[in-house]
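Reopening this one. Same input as before:
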Amino acid sequence: MFPHLTFPAKLVKQTTIYVAVWVLCLTDWMWGRSIETWWRAWPEGIWFALSVPLSAYWIAWAGWLCRLEDGDNANLVALRRIAGEISTATFDQHADESTFLIRRNLVWSVAAIFLWQVSVFFADALDLPHARVGLATWGTWSLFFLGLLWVVWFVERASKIYEEQRYEHRRREQLAATEFGRSAHRATHDDDADDERVHNPLDPHAWYYGRRARKLNQSLTWMSVYSLCFSIAFLVFTQIGGCSDIYEMPAGGGKQAQIAQAVKIQKIIKKKFVVNPFSAISFKVPPIDEIKLQLQEITQHAYTVGYGEGTGAGFAGGTSGGKVRFLRLEYSGGDWDQDMSVYSGDNLLREYGLRTKQKVSEKEETRTVAALKAFPPEKSPPFVYMTGEKNISISASEAKVLREYLIDKHGMLFIDNGGSGHFHNQVLAMMRIVLPNILASRVPLDDTIHRIPYPIPFLPYVAPHGGKEAFGWRVDGRLVAYYHPGDIGDAWADGHAGVKPEITEFCYQLGVNVIFYAHAEYSKWLSSRMKK
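Same output, byte for byte:
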């Protein structure tokens, strides 16, 4: 039915062993987040990198080395046939051009998958989020169409063989009918056997394809089945397999209190000048009572910041290896990665660690909406950050995942308007879908999130794209979503987008407050669950 494809047995065995370990490393990287620990990431990176020379050798073999092997095999078969060891009927032309092309294209297709994966891994390891997202997106689409081409080829070749078999069967019946003097009609490829009900989906004459446009119906059916299978596999890799993803807070304790700040007023008295009235030099003598006041704010870290019954900078319910992390939410329809290339989240993480003395992750991370489902309730991120200035598109299933994350897992959305009134409307529309029974309300300056650990005298912003007031969505008094309308992420970015230093400082303070609020509320919830 199909050409017999031969491969070098030793190379196949070695590749099978490599692929088995490769699958384990891939699982650890995708779902165990090994990229965050160098002692796991780099050994896996070396193993992934081995796919490059292995793929290169397979490509070389499929391109020209196999022709040498095929030639040698053909000579051996010919000698055995001459010696009478095998019959002419069993003689196989190993150098058949179609077999060579099929084998070469198959090797190229499989090698492309490994090379794509290693490129995405190193883009992730080298902290190149734009490259990683681009490679992952375009690679996924390329993989879909590559698989579709193979499905089309397979179905077309199989259906052609069934058609030829059917034609040959009809032709023999026609000859038999003619021989016995019965009437017969000319055999065609469209004939169906009498009282025959075909079920094989590779046969275009299967009964469920109908009697009209059979080939078209067969092609559409296989395309639909393939698309469904690919979608299920995609969901398995992006959602179901991620059940091992966890978030652990740093262990510690303390009370929700403001960081002690003092304003030191330094009084500098101008020097008095003794002026010679007979001097030719003219001086502007300042008033005797003129003084210059210099205000200097000194932040005193007299204590470490945390919440709970533990000791040290951290939270009750945390672990010794836990860290405060900054997770950015990936969503469809817009520019979810805004300011990520200028290290907005990284800078806020660093400032949070310096100001609170808590352990923090070295860099920000990203998660899709669907990936939030992978976190168990007691090991979920206390907050996720969401920004952009374009569209927000979430499906019904994603809205359900967000709702469960905010309510059942006690999480929080930290939303920042990255640059448009349109995004403001998109946020409100999204929240109406996620929390249909909860209305947005203004968050006053005397709210806990604006007072602890830093008292915020006014809402700092870079540009008031969505107004000058923060909005929140509350469940049982707790903020489950905090929306900042003024592009606060720009102030955290490298260069601070030209924002004044005092505004930048307040933006950092507000960012610290939001992160601390989310972790403190999550810590309270964990403590209450432990007491039950």
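So the earlier flakiness isn't reproducible anymore. For the record, The chain is about 45% helix and 10% strand.
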